[in-house]
Amino acid sequence: MNLPDDPQVEPAGAFAGTPDGLDRLWTPHRMVYIGGQDKPADDAPGDGCPFCRIPTLDDEQGLVVRRGDVAFVVMNLYPYNSGHLLVCPYRHVADYTDLTDDEVAEVAALTRTAMRVVRDVMAPDGFNLGMNQGQVAGAGIQAHLHQHVVPRWGGDANFLPIVARTRALPALLGDTRAALAAAWPATEGTTDPC
Ligand SMILES: [Zn+2]
Q: Domain residue spans in the chain?
């Protein structure tokens, strides 16, 4: 494995996602390991919340695919599958009923466009969409709402998660982010008319 002499290691807390106890086996030959668990210490907004911090980073750094007016799309650092996206309001709100009408509309529009873009780029056979509301329901970062968009392929749920608590991810997050961002239509998926 060839690594640069001074590889830049970003803290996992700078990215989106919910640690879930599974290890990830990143399978491309250019393998990068990102270590460390990344749960906010509390439910407060700001730098302690990855979904508040990510929009302050540039797209490559934060793995941001698309920025809307009131919501954004980001790669999940702990993907269940390649192309696993999260759609989040910029506002630090926990519950779906806390969203404004504009946020509901844009989260929905970004989710719809995310499906189209992932279909174009990665040709999945299906999707899982959803939000976990509350820790008991599986929300790892419960204080900041995020909608999962998980592409599915036939046979993707192989033996690895069961026997090894590991998922095999055949594409790197940065590469996938770049491909999805490039394929995202210029205007579609946001409420911004221009
Ligand atoms: Zn937040």
A: 12-183
How many A from CA of 19 to the centre of ligand 1? 16
Give the amino acid at 169: L
pLDDT digit string, tens, across residues 112-122: 999 999 999 99
Catalytic residue check, 146: yes
Sign of the alpha-carbon dihedral angle for 38, 39, 40, 45: positive
CA–centroid distance, 159 to ligand 1, in Å, is 34
Ligand 1 centroid to Cα of residue 16, in Å, is 10
What's the CATH fold of domain 12-183?
Answer: HIT family, subunit A (3.30.428)
Other CB atoms within a 10 A radius of the CB of residue 67 amount to 16
Please pick, among 84, 144, 146, 148, the residue that the annotation labels catalytic: 146
Which pLDDT tens digit goes with each residue over 168-192? 666 788 889 999 999 999 876 555 4
Global pTM value: 0.74
